[in-house]
Amino acid sequence: MIDFLKDIYDGMKTFMVGMKVTGGYLKENMITEGVFQAPTDVDIAPNTVAYDGTVEKAMQVPISDRFRGHLHNDIERCIVCKNCAKACPIDCFWIDGEKTESNKLRPSRFDIDILKCMYCGLCVFACPTGCLTMTKEWWGSQRANTTDAKGGRSNLHGLIREFGVGYYAPDQKFEVEKKRIEIAESKKKKAARGAAARAAAAPPPRLPR
Fold first, then answer.
1. Domain spans of the chain?
2. Confidence class for position 30, pLDDT limits 50, 70, 90
3. What span, in angstroms and rounded, lies between the C-alpha atoms of 77 and 97?
4. What contacts 109, CB < 8 A, 6 or more positions away?
5. Span 67-171: which CATH code?
6. What's the mean per-residue pLDDT of the chain?
7. Is 108 helix (H, G, I), strand (E, B) or coil?
8. In the structure, what pLDDT confidence band is assigned to residue 45 with cuts at 50, 70 and 90?
């Protein structure tokens, strides 16, 4: 009986989480610049054009403000919480983290399989730091600075986008570990000196009469 009630509770909790995300999208789509307007009043850009296969034509395609294109990660803002990977329904994220000298996580690897991504945007809603955003690029476009693994220009669609800052080399990892230990020991000594100073400055205890 307890398990049955627990299943009902878990189901309702999951449902409410999903409705929260849906409500966020509803609010985003019905409010423009702080003013409510029905979805039918939103000015939608045309999404069907005569395409001749050239990059120049692709870059001229008008895109709606509500369009969700490829995922981009401002990697410097990533805290390796992996909330995006947990929210992704199709597992298109690969994330690894390493600790820095200050004992904070850095994203050594952050790969997104664009071929698997279905552009739902759930990861963007789940990201607490706002480092994940959806670009305004449609799947057929190319960018001058976009390269594949071999250094050649490549279509964005179907690639694994690599945003991680890279793994520490063995010698770098040794130095990072050494500095982290030194910083931790320094903090301990500073805390001990502070405690000793406070104890010395405290008035002597009163003896009972």
1. 1-38, 67-171
2. low
3. 13
4. 94, 95, 96, 162, 164, 166, 167
5. 3.30.70.3270
6. 75
7. strand
8. very low
